[in-house]
Predict the structure.
Amino acid sequence: MRQRARQTQTGQTRGATGRQLSQKARQEQRQAILKIRISTLNQLYKLKPLTRMEIEQAAGYGVFEINGLNAVLAETPGRGAVQEKRGGRITYMRLARTDVSPGVAVRPYWQVLVFSDPQRLSQFVASGSPADASRDPSIKVYKLDEKGVSMQADWGARYFRDPDLN
């Protein structure tokens, strides 16, 4: 059963994670994600200048930071934001990579998802990603890491709305 973020009487938000966030902490986390989004897009534009026009013409885009860690539980967490161009709405999201083996070290990297189909973008924002989303031709995924930028054909991640930040 999914829990929704709800306001407590003290003005704090308690989400599905069970922790309480003050409005200030919530705003700080949102700002941190938006700052990462700007720096990631700037890096992508520097490495692949034509992506700027691609993103400008897209229905929307998402930028995610995936934390590097030892994947003891075979799940690597990340977070980011998806912006719908029509209306400018930003949805904060989390992700879990489930395609790594237990004990494998994962270096930090960033993903930029570019959505060409507005309907697919709306579905993604509303309900996250199905298991086969990486095969969807309406979503292009760029991976940025210390080696540069590459296209990803199979990105092995589950995306879902962040109940603490939306």
Observations:
- The helical segments are 23-47, 51-57, 118-127.
- The chain has one domain: 19-161.
